[in-house]
## 1
Amino acid sequence: MRRGEEAMVPQAEFRSYYGQPVIKSPIWHEPHMPVYLYLGGTSGAASMLAAMATLTGRDRLALTARLVAAGGAAGGAAFLVAELGRPERFLNMLRVFKPTSPMSVGSWVLAVHSGLTALAAGSALVTPRRPPSGPPPSRLAAALPARLAAVLSGTRPAPSPSRTAGAAGAAGVAGVAALRARLVAALPSRAVTLLPATGDAAGLVAVLTGPLMATYTAVLVADTAVPAWHEAHRELPFLFAGSALAGAGAASMLATPLRDAGPARAAAVLGATVETVAGAVMERRLGMLGEPYRQGVSGRLMRAARVLTVAGALLAPVAGRGRTLTALSGLALTGGALCTRFGVLRAGKASAADPKYTVVPQRERLEAARQEAARGENGENAEI
Amino acid sequence: MAERMGFFTDTSICIGCKACEVACKEWNHVPDDGFVFRATSYDNTGSLGADTWRHVAFIEQPGRARDGRGPGGPDGSDGAASNGGFEDIEGWLMSSDVCKHCTHAACLDVCPTGALFRTEFETVVVQADVCNGCGYCVPACPYGVIDRREGDGRAFKCTMCYDRQLGGLEPACAKVCPTDSIQFGPLDELRARAAERLEHLHAGGRSEARLYGADPGDGVGGDGAFFLLMDEPEVYGLPPDPVVTTRDLPAMWGWAAGAALSMAGAVAISFLGRSRSFPGRSR
Amino acid sequence: MAECHPVGFQWVVEAKARGAKVFHIDPRFTRTSAIADRYLPIRAGSDIVLLGALINHVLTRELDFREYVLAYTNASSIISEDFGDTEDLDGLFSGFDPETRAYDPASWSYEGSGEEASGGGEHLEGGRHHSAAAGGDQYGSGGAPASSRPPSDPTLRHPRCVYQILRRHFARYTPELVEELCGIRPEDFAELADAITANSGRERTTAWAYAVGWTQHTVGAQYIRAASILQLLLGNIGRPGGGILALRGHASIQGSTDIPTLFNLLPGYLPMPHAHRHGGLDDYLANVGADTGFWGRKRAYTVSLLKAWWGEAATAENDFCFGHLPRVTGDHGHFTTVMAQIDGTVKGYFVVGENPAVGSSGGRAQRLGLANLDWLVVRDLTLVETATFWKDGPDLATGEMRTEDIATEVFFMPAASHVEKEGTFTNTQRLLQWRHKAVEPPGDCRSDLSFYYHLGKRIRQRITDDEIDRPLRELTWDYPEEGEHAEPSADAVLREINGTGPDGRALSAYTELEPDGSTRCGCWIYCGVYADEVNQAARRKPRGEQDRVAPEWGWAWPANRRILYNRASADPEGRPWSERKAYVWWDAERGEWTGHDVPDFERDKPPGYRPPEGALAEAALAGTDPFIMQPDGKGWLFAPSGLADGPLPAHYEPHESPVRNPLYGQQANPGRQTYQRPESPYNPPGSSRFPYVLTTYRLTEHHTAGGMSRPLAYLAELQPELFCEVSPALAAELGLVNGGWATIVTSRTAIEARVLVTGRVRPLRLQGGTVHQIGLPYHWGWGSGGLVTGDTVNDLMPLVLDPNVYIQESKAMTCDLRPGRRPTGRALLDLIEEYRRG
Ligand SMILES: Nc1nc2c(c(=O)[nH]1)N[C@H]1C(S)=C(S)[C@@H](COP(=O)(O)OP(=O)(O)OC[C@H]3O[C@@H](n4cnc5c(=O)[nH]c(N)nc54)[C@H](O)[C@@H]3O)O[C@H]1N2
Ligand SMILES: Nc1nc2c(c(=O)[nH]1)N[C@H]1C(S)=C(S)[C@@H](COP(=O)(O)OP(=O)(O)OC[C@H]3O[C@@H](n4cnc5c(=O)[nH]c(N)nc54)[C@H](O)[C@@H]3O)O[C@H]1N2
Ligand code: SF4
Ligand code: SF4
Ligand code: SF4
Ligand code: SF4
Ligand code: SF4
Ligand SMILES: [Mo]
């Protein structure tokens, strides 16, 4: 191709060095990286659900959410370490704090967050749970002015024990009770009395780390030269946040008695909606760079994610009707959240592997700048 | 801080001898990159990576029927003749690529451990004893330079021979380059020299000559290692308009914050009026 | 040059930056072409046509540097009327004996000097091989004898004067012929011709650089002759920026011809005595070249050499032990020796720093020879194929050899590399540079000097006082030993080579050598390298601290002169031809030659000096005769003798060529050396089974037979596999895929290589048809501890040589090419059989 001729680079017509990539593909592996994204996000969102549940005196939901949050953070950290080339040097992550490095920021967030959520979960396990009915005994809820508490928890006459708190729920409760009994026995009495308070506190602070956990990973991947990631830096946070919420909602509804899982289902639906919308907007806005999200393996994964998420979201409203529906909805949403993360990783790698995605947009950028300058010279209004 | 040191690689006088590649590996004990015949002209190491810190690219430029003269030379005439209708070659470009030691280095910005740091020569170097192989620098580099070494787990790239510079020696690759295609020195001097060289080539009619990475106003604030190229950057496997990825970081955090808040909102909402929208108990 | 002399090429790049215009003439577009101003593709084996046409261009347009030509060349000399040119004899010169396929050069001589020049003429038993025994070297560096004052015609009109003979001889070499045979377009030829003529004369000079692209031909020596004629006509010899630069090969390959590892030379280009042609010392000296010019001092050189070797034992009475010298009886060259091995007449073999099983033409014949020895000594850095062929050679796979049948006892001696020992390198421009030892050699590795010295000592311990052992007994073999391994002092050896005077002190110039045995000198041209008892080769004064001639960097033979025959840089009166090109000149006041370089001339011989009748040696040359080694002091446009295949270059096709020679009935060099042997048959002439031109060459990334590069990861990874370079057109025609496999076939064998499709190799339109060329680098083999291996290209090469220096024709032959890998085992032999049947 001649100089001058590339005045306007025709789409996808471009030159390269033997078709080799210009940038290096992310070396992050499957399942480590995507699973971490899922677990971290889920943990972040779950911690918020937990806090709200606690505030609104939904201790049962709070318990699950806290466990999900803690489990997600711990599991995520494990995958993160496993992803390192030198796992034994994981702690080097905390050697410095670098605002310019989303991974540095993220590492600190993860460190704090996993601590908080662990504490919260721990306390939830040892704190005696209020009877399924009656006024909110949760120390926090109790501390709140009755009216506000009422609004928050939206209580009317306390619900009577219902069939819908099915066997699973009961079993769950029994299991938790047994576990708690053992823990309490193990802990020094002083701790037992102190833990609940600190646990709740930790759970509340996690409201700050939670959202970060759910979204920093979007910045992490966007802050690279990978075209399909970098250019998507507006939508990715919403995609991840939504997917995190959907995931957390799903996980929580799966392990909470139907009766107490209402907010989890609501969260799942909202999350799924955000995720789906963000994904659609992203692909449209990216134009050619959206290809990797539509084509090939990554494309299939993204489509699967969408189908599962939408399906799960549609089921969620009725999931309260039965365990099966809950299971279907929850699993669909979870699957959707996972597929999204795998799809995003694959799409990133695909966009890095093909020089087209690096060269063509940059050429267009240069060309635009050139015309801009030209127009400027022609004395016309340069800032368009 | 010492004066900023850099490289000016003048590809118009590179003879593709690869002495730079070899000297680099010798000095830095870089392992071989495998023994693969790539059938990409005389290039069998492919690209920069953890095991190749200097890489010589070979580009065979197919000729076009022109004014019936041999391949172009700095005297200006260009173009190969149509050889009785046979496919001809106009030129054979060779270029020794290396880490650009960017003014705004994405790899360094994103490194969470501080393993990557900026030296007193304003070069960008990995501290092998700190790097934990998180791999973040790899996709962050807009030039695809740094990479993680399989088996070892850490990231490696050109150090601009930090150790040699500390010892007052010029980098190994520049030292061995027979034609001075690789020139090492204070960046300002190099930029001036490069401008002159470009003048000269343009005056000689080599209008295709252009500097790459010499402009402090570019997306990475200018390269510590810049080049004189004889064709478009992408032909050499270089990005035409690289931008340090962290330039958009504030915006990214902004969008992330937005997403975080919306999430918080969504959570709050999900705890409202459940009885209405989501029957927990069927009556 | 960029490919094989990258470090030297920096000066070409520098010259280019200063405005020099660089042309590159090569069948392939190489790394050199990439930054040359002009690239001219040429068919391998056709350069004499191009050079001849340039000569013709200069002569017909009278663009020669006439003053220079008249004063400094033999243009005006008149040649014997017996001389018959290729013009008259359809491609043969007079004096050819079809039966021995050798020339008697008598008829080429200057008028009146008659038989004097018939050096190569006598016919001894053994036929041509005997007269060929010394080829062009039979006269040493003095060249052939010829009268110092031949009759001449300064008007250049005499029909038999060299100038007129040249005009007639080269008249056929036209731009049209260049297009027809070389494939170079007339407009490109014109540009080249204009450039070199415009860039020659008083104010400017043009240089030609060549290496084995010009020498590995059956007409190799004549390629260089053609370039010499052109450069002499343009006045580009003996002047700064001029010359014909031979870019040499191995480190110190120049040194190994100065102090030769060649069978037919003694140090300083003194011919090896011949068992039948030479009797005693006087007889020898009478037969080894001229008595005029500096070669006239050959007695001093020879006697000093004998004194260096046999010391006190060498006396005037015993001919200075001349009888102790070994003698040649004929051609003992590399390939003839290999044939003798196959025939069982050569039983032992030293292979030192060479890997013939991979590096020499006819690899299979080489290995057949090795397999038929009693003993073989290989000294190398690594276990090269030559040392391991018996257990892993390709001939085992085809069943042609069986390890259990090979009786050769192989001794492998690990060698110290150049960084593990001290000594000198003599490089391309005759510059001796001293190397200090950087590291101790590992394990049992020893320098070659140490090996030969201690081998000599042990042999001397075993010899009797029998007469036959006298030469060994009386040999001076006493160098100081250093270190735990008793390493002989290389410094002492260099001093012995330099030579000592009666007082035992180091001499400072070869002019101090005496014929009476009072001086000793191991190599007369190196005399002065140890002047003032200082190792002059070890000087390393930086470039910045001396002028551009840099006389204090190393030491150049002879007498530290950086440009040979530099008296030619001044006009006959001794004034520089121009300010711009001033180099050495005559200083009338001081009555001596002076300038930037050491004058290659007697310091005090005035330009006006005219030799008296019957003067000898340098005294026989006038003050206007710059070519002081020549008997007539002139640059030879026409060589009255000294070459085995003619006084002038004529274009002959390579031994194997797809093209007929349109110039003469004589297709190929009549004097070329062939071996009609079953081990290594030739492609049937004009056979349509071998339609392509094959040329072989080097890659920057590897070294020759690969023993030094294939075992090194950092080099091996850069060019991991043997490949063949083919044009897109040929690839399309044969269905070859870039990166795929192809099989290259000759009558010798077939090898496989990866395919590299590239526009850098282009088909040529010749004689109406299309000629495709195929390029093969030859660095691969099956062993040498190589990290990368590949088929051996030399197994394809024919055994056919230049008759002057016995270099193999490995730059131009024919072959066939087929897609896919080669058959293995027996099937390979069957395939070749099929091809041989034509
Ligand atoms: N890197 C490296 N350097 C080396 C060596 C090495 O192996 N590797 N070997 C050393 C040695 S031993 C030597 S002798 C020198 C050799 O140095 P060169 O002579 O430069 O080496 P070659 O590549 O064999 O041949 C040079 C060119 O001749 C071209 N050629 C072939 N036939 C013809 C012809 O008929 N006419 C013309 N005009 N060109 C022709 C080939 O295409 C090739 O490009 O290099 C020395 N330097
Ligand atoms: N087809 C084809 N064939 C060719 C050529 C070609 O162009 N085409 N070129 C020809 C030319 S020009 C040449 S020079 C030959 C080269 O061919 P060879 O000389 O047979 O091959 P090399 O690999 O150079 O062998 C030199 C060996 O010396 C060893 N060595 C290095 N240093 C030392 C030392 O100090 N002492 C000892 N004892 N050994 C040492 C190295 O390890 C190496 O194995 O190839 C010739 N063959
Ligand atoms: S080129 Fe890449 S690796 Fe080198 S400094 Fe810039 S960002 Fe870092
Ligand atoms: S891989 Fe090493 S150098 Fe690269 S970002 Fe991670 S810690 Fe820093
Ligand atoms: S500067 Fe040093 S490390 Fe960098 S490429 Fe050159 S030799 Fe290698
Ligand atoms: S050493 Fe110099 S000339 Fe050789 S390849 Fe490297 S840059 Fe080019
Ligand atoms: S290998 Fe040695 S001789 Fe050959 S180019 Fe390099 S430096 Fe010069
Ligand atoms: Mo050679």
## 2
Amino acid sequence: MISAVIMVAMLTTQDTSAGKQVYQKWCAGCHGDQGAGDGVAAKYMIPPPRDFTGAIYQIRSTASGNLPTDADLMRSLDEGLHGSAMPGWRNALSDRERRDVLAYIKTLSTFFADTTLRPQALEFGGAPSGGTGDEALKVGRQFYDSIGCQKCHGDLGRGDGPSAPTLKDDAGRIPIFPADLHQNWLFNGGGTVDDIYHRLRTGLDGTPMPSFSDLLENTFLTDGQLWRVAQYVRSLSPEKPPVVRDVIRAPLIERALPHAPDDSAWTSVDAYWFPLVGQVVRKSRWFAPAVTGVWVKAVHTADSLALQVTWDDRSESPDPAWLEHVGRVLATLEQDEGATEQPALWPDQIAVQFPVTIPTGMERPYFLMGSSSAPVYQWRWTSTARTAAVAGLARGLERFDPVANGGVGAQAVYEHGQWRVVFTRALASPDTASQLPFRTSRAIPVAFFAWDGSNGEHGTRMAISTWYFLALDEPVPARVFISPVLAMMLTLGLGMLVVWRAQQKTSYRRQQ
Amino acid sequence: MKGRIFSVVGGMFLLTVCSKGDNSQVQAAPPAADTPPPATATAGSAAGGTITGKIKFTGTAPRNPAIDMSEEAACKAKYTTTPTEENVVAGPANALSNVFVYVSAGVPAGQTFTAPTTPVVLDQSGCRYHPHVFGVMVGQPVEIRNSDPVLHNIKAVAKKNRPFNVSQPSAGMKTTRTFTAPEVTVNLQCNVHGWMHAWVGVRPDPFFAVSGADGSFSITGLPPGTYTIEAWHEKFGTQTATVTIAGTETKTANLTFAAR
């Protein structure tokens, strides 16, 4: 024991006091005073803050099991880890402060003091060209399968593989999610082809994601083929992270309303991305929502509206395979009630919210499901009653009153880690006092709520959005097309008349 | 008990730190070829005393959960009956196998041992690890083989050693790893198959054994001295005994765990 005390004393003398000050001010809240990843905020996070005492780092340029280089650590410090609560500090701290705190963090583990463990970055080379071509992506897909990516990340990469519900941290306590490969802007180590390839080579230590470097040594595949895997994974996400556009444009379509999520009418309709965040306003709060956002499409006919909401969800809840995972999620997070709730098989849910009437001014009901004096009109869908949606009035988070003759239809498809739900309703409303009549060419406020039952979400534990807008295109009247032609013809006629009259006068004068 | 392990390991660490550039005295890693340290014994030396004994347990062993291998037909096909986990493997008369037994104290400080270059082989077959528990010396290679035509990843969960996590997506693949610090035990696991666990006792000396199907173990080659032996079981914790060895005699140390 005494030797251990001496050892710690030896190490603490190396502390850079400046770095320690920065650490205590900015880092300790999550990472803990001693760097054990146990700060006061830690119990609200999945994934949890890094425990610096073990020096196990996900984002490295070094082989699995090796320490990260200083450049690796600085990168995570500068950029943050996008799939976690870790922000980037490049603009928040000075160069000097970041260097100091990095040096201090290294003193929190004995491993960095061991000179035999000096980290060395792997040689990565560069990506082969043609990575976005069909042939390259086919090769990438082939090796995606043969090296077993789908076991965790799922057939189409949405983090819904058969092993996904079982994944845990080293201590077997905290659940770990395989990344949704369609959301590269949330990858902890960055979303470029290079970033993805580096993660394949190094693995994410401390997580179930292994290093695939040994495959090259075993000549299971070539370096070029591993690059193709990275290029294939990159191809699953959009070219650029989705930009939030405030207004969903619902075009008028000259065909039957698409009730089915697979209706071909949807393919040509623009999709709008809305990010969701945890509901942390009212108790019981929720800090670890699983649904990161929804894609929304809308169309209307002369008399009806169809709204398609699509979101990635790694589990088709309720699914008993995820029950233990739910238990781990609930046990990891501090809950407002104090006691840990027993895990249960909750369903997935989605809610679309509108005001009861289209507001005339800037005033809108409270975005978080209205209030007792100013209710909101909602459509609610749950995975246990797939082809039904309930319309009703929400008066705050606690109260939802279904309306009679809601008239909202729903059809849903769950495929490869993704829900697609289509809501339909007549534009006109049988009860304009409680059910919003949809009108064209108006900015209709709309908001979204999502629950992943297999992430322990139900009731007030959910993902929420703010208000956005839905705008139904006006039918274009025929006169819009005819008027310009008529105007042109009239102008031409009048012009010719003037010319003809002028010529008449000229010839008359000559004759005189 | 943990304190004792820690102080032993911590002491060794301290010695290692303090003795930089003084290879002749203490060495945690296998010696460099050009400077063989004087006080070096070869692992598995035939001379010396032996500690042998049987490991048993009292009470009722918990049932090993059945493994659902329906996701892995190639593994499932290797069994005629439903395979189970190997958390508690009991033999006749409450004999307990898969117990890692080692000398936790008594080996003279400063004495170092050369790790064998022969690897310890860990096989993955039928989506289980073989052996389930094994010992290895610091610096001794561990050859991890995949005999299953399915993806396994091998993740080492360690505190005193660097953890690693590598993948083997096909049969015939081999990966060799070494451990750099004594640790009882390092957990090896496969995240694709959550039931797969193996336990590695990493020691700086060759004085360790794993109890067999009848619960018996034998640690050989011990120089005269008084030793603490510790028995570690993944579910039942640890047990210790003190044994004094004089000459080349064989002493018996039976250890009994309480099932929990």
## 3
Amino acid sequence: MVARLPTLCAAATGALLLVAAPAPAAAATHVVTIDKMKYGAVPPLKTGDTVVFVNKDIFRHTVTSSNNRFNLDLMPGKRGTLHINSAGRATFYCKYHPGMRGSMIAK
Amino acid sequence: MMRATFLISAAAAFAVSVPAQAANPTDAQIAHIAYTAGNLDIAAAKQALKVSKNKTVRDFAQEMVRDHEAVNAKALALVKKLHVTPEANTTSTSLTKAADAERAKLGKLKGAAFDREYITNEVAYHKTVNGALKSTLIPSANNGELKSLLETGLTLFQEHQAHAEHVAAKIK
């Protein structure tokens, strides 16, 4: 599953922190594991990066934006991808287990 | 023979506690309790899916079936790998008896009354199982993989309890 993350929103203000896309050469791919009812830490991101969430848990989980910007629904063993297209901070949670929460910051 | 037993309270079918003298269930007994607790909740959820027309309640019930089936499949694979045969005990028997009584009670209800009773019981049930996991089952587990699965189960069931409490508040 691939979801576009067109913008990361500043949570406090809701303002969009749009920036120009960086050169493709600078882009990196980060793998974040979901296991034992927890999201792994998302490293600092740059616009243009890709984050691959891998659900290694035995449960179905989602990576759902707190402000409905993106949603990955991942069955056990599946992976989903977010493309970071703008700078900012985003928080996310699992729709099925809302106590599972995470965040990411892109510069 | 396992000494841990749950006392069924008169106030709520699943409001149970582990008495002070309860101690050290074996891994085989713990596996049986955990598996039984999961199966009973799956059965309750399937009953809800047959009866309830409330989307919030049905979504919750589907989550219970999905998550508990996943835990139980993992538990079965683990006991097979460890060559452990789950052993019936007074705690799993008490849980089953209480669940039978609750199922019969729910069987007489329909509509909003059914939804309220099902969700109220789900809150109490998860609270009970979580208490037992924390106070007795996890500390008593000897095998590291079993302990880890129980710890993941506790995190999951705490989510279920919170979800059930949320649904209960919503359908009041």
## 4
Amino acid sequence: MFDYLKNMSLKNLGLSLTVGIGLMSSSAAWSEELQIGAIFPLSGPNAIYGDIFTSAFKLAERHVKEDGLLDGDFSILYEDSQALPQQAVTAMNKMVNVQGLQYVLTAFTGQTKAISPIAKRSQTVIINGGAVGPDLAKLTDYLWNVIPLANTELHGLLPYIVKERGLKSFVLLYVDDPLGDGILDVLNSDLPPLGATLDKTFSVAPTTQQFSGIAASIRNIGPDVVFVASYGDQMIQIVKQLRENGVKAQLASYSAFSTPNLQTLPAAKGALYARQAVNIDSDDNLTTRYLKDYQEEYGKSPSVYATNYYNAVWLYVLLAHELQKQGKEVTGENLLAQRRAMDSFPLVGGTVTFDDTGVLLAPIQVMEIDGEAGKTLSVMSTNN
Amino acid sequence: MLLLQLFVNGIQVGILYALTAVGFSLIFGSTKIFHFAHGATFVIAAYIFQFIYAGLGLHWILAVIVAMMATVSFGLFLNRFVYVPIQRHEGSYFTIFVASFGSVIIVQNLIGIIFGRGFLVIDTPLSRGVEVVDNLLVSPLLGIALLCAVMIFGGLHLVMTRTHVGIALRALSESPELVRTFGLSARRLSVYAFALGSSLVVPAAIFTGATSGLNPTIGYHVMLISLISTIVGGVGSIWGAAIVGLMIGIAENLALWQFDSQWSEAVSFAILFLFIIFRPSGLFGRASVH
């Protein structure tokens, strides 16, 4: 080998190196791999959410490949967080430091808060389509929310309950984590101006399974409304046990009540909740294809959460496509700059915009669980 | 009235805890195997019952029998193919614990794959509270659970005091060396312990599925209650475990009368710590000198 190099003329060596480097760089350009990450509960008591989110990703991945909008191979890497902050931090470190990802999807308030310092430090975009803790809005510019947060949801729901239904005394049963604490703050600040009161709060650990004692205490207080702020299987346990232990007060919650398991739970019938309004009647190609293919693939209509995460992937595709057109590298910093440069984004349900803190602006629907897809009671614009 | 309601709720929860804990106490007390997979046995029982009863629409008695067969098979399988080989190679107590813990994870994921990872509720009108006196609700399931517990504990008492197997299991719990001296096989006796202990979990799993509902990961909570009941009740005392299980259920509910709901679960640990400090041998255990 060394003898061969010695025998080569300087001119030939230079030519070979130039051609070699050129081939290497052009090959790198053509085989650019665009990977994004997803940190979700794929096991544990909240795995049901992971299933919903993953269904949307798989469809989004398929559509991205079909459309060929991106130069390079596109794929999504998954890590299981069990919805726990510690596991989420480990997963985020791996995705940022080992896999070098620039765009990571996340859910759940606790885990999203836990990984946000890493996102800020490494200038990696994290995008949330499921967590609604109010303080997610101000953590870092690199955290975007394609879902309105609980404060926005409650701004729509609470006036409806108090003014339209005439219910004024509230009891809050909440999980003791950043989400529950956030909702407690919103109720404390929003109820008095409406002329309503928060009479008592019950905080529970995320692992609590027995609520019959709390139900007895709530019955003893006799509130008009029991606001439930939990998630996952615990939410179902709470609703079932409250009703079976004689709590007849109006049940209310945030968008976590929109999961299919709660929609069909007999004990939850009549419960009120708020969620973002998604215009599934929009006739744009993206929406119609998404609805049709989701129905074909999974035999059911997509939930709001599935739509949010589909949109989260699609948002990346739109931004990365623009950056590639401009000849820029797809980095977290450039993605943030590009999002700010673009006013609106055509996503499933129509064209959307973000506010200054990176939270999606969407109308809020007040819904009632009716045993089927839910009944819309009122719709409030985010700008109200 | 609130105090009385909390007490009644506590009895209902406590009976379930007692039924859950007694099986683990029997296995752990007799064999000294830290059978962490007892929680997985609980999950298997609930999901098999639900599948036979609600999924296939068959009679609940048949569903109970099949669930019982499944749990006994699982217990015997673990004993024969996991614990015995580890013991044969003189694996440590900790090795057995890790193997058992691993079994829980495998079962949890298998249940999730086969039956889905959603929430399981055994739907029955029996779990709905009925107002018996002014503002005091009692669910019919409490009466059934109470009757069931009396029958099970009565039957268990007969087995443990009147049959050779029961007496041998008690002897194994007291002194394995003495059992071997009398020519009895500790391995064979552990088979009986696993079969009996695993089958005892079935009623608790069904009642829990009906009252609070469950998911594939509930095994950890089951083990927590079983472990606290066994330690506080006194290792080797199945009656101790049953009584402490009942006590924990009542204490968790009564705590709500004066304390914030967040403290309800901490009551179990407070009881555990108090016993570890002041009576390490447990309520019915005997102190030993090493």
